[in-house]
Request: fold
Amino acid sequence: MTIAEGCILVACLLPIACAWIAKARGFGKPRGDGGFDNYNPRRWLASLEGWQARANAAQMNGFEILPIFIAGVLLNERSQESQALIDGLALAFIATRIGYIGAYLADWANLRSVLWLIGAACCIAMFFVG
Reply:
């Protein structure tokens, strides 16, 4: 497995981590007391506010950017010409995603947007470096 392929796994797990962060305060509480509602989780998640709502939004955005990242890695690796560069772009993407999640949770909108843009640029660059 290449570094970039390992980054695919990490990128797939990051939105799941965000979901856990969003749900954290609801675990262990009864549904009637505002605890996590496993019978209707989407409605419960939509009712969140503050950092929990931002964690849920980061989860959704993580799933939205995932296809272009996976496609960029796999298509570029097929060419087998620039593995070090694709590994570097994949690592940079993961770093921006972790920063993005942190910025989202902290409610730093401008930094979050810059990190999203850099991460998206890493994905797009993967299509052209092979």
In short: The chain has five helices and no strands.
